[in-house]
Amino acid sequence: MVSARYAVRYLMDPLCGWCYGAAPAVQKLRNVPGVQLEIAPTGLFAGAGSRAMDADFAAYAWSNDERIESLTGQRFTPRYRSEVLGKHGQRFDSGPATLALTAVQRTAPEREFDALRAIQEARYVDGLDTTDQTVLAELLRGLQLDAAAQLLLQTDAALTTATRDRIADAQRDMQQLGAQGVPALVLVGDQGRRLVRGNALYGSLDSLLAQLQAS
Hints:
This protein is of the alpha+beta class. The protein has helices spanning 17-21, 23-30, 55-72, 78-85, 95-107, 112-124, 133-142, 146-154, 157-177, 205-214; strands spanning 7-12, 36-41, 51-52, 91-92, 184-189, 192-197. It contains 10 helices and 6 strands.
């Protein structure tokens, strides 16, 4: 069992298919007594990391998604393929979803993982456009996170700054610890910070806990 002295930071991006694939393991880890898990959005596909959806990128994404589904059992539906990957010209930009997560973190922090799960499933299962702030606000309202929804739609300077600061903090962890991508975990303990790479999130819980303890 992982010592209770550890906090675990989950480096992720809400539009990362591999992070969606890791969701079952992340949920199990959240339920381990003594583990304090927090979301650390990296902005991987926000800002300069965003792009327009086109046929080549859609094919690349779908190829990855098929691998993820085979490995993890997480669903990537035909509706997602047609309504998200098939919408060429639409922005592939995790900035709005990251803002939504920060709005929840500022108003109901204990519900941020619920919001992340809803955003991921809305995209990969329901085929909704989670780059649209109005869609995201509706998702938050559906979770009874009305204050977060209102904050997201206002998108005031404080929310933008808080989101930018969270991304900078996560990117600093990635750079300092040599993370090559997401998902990944950062253990924060008496001996400093330690990186656990994302492949640990695709095996058994016992294997994951062993890697955390070894770190």
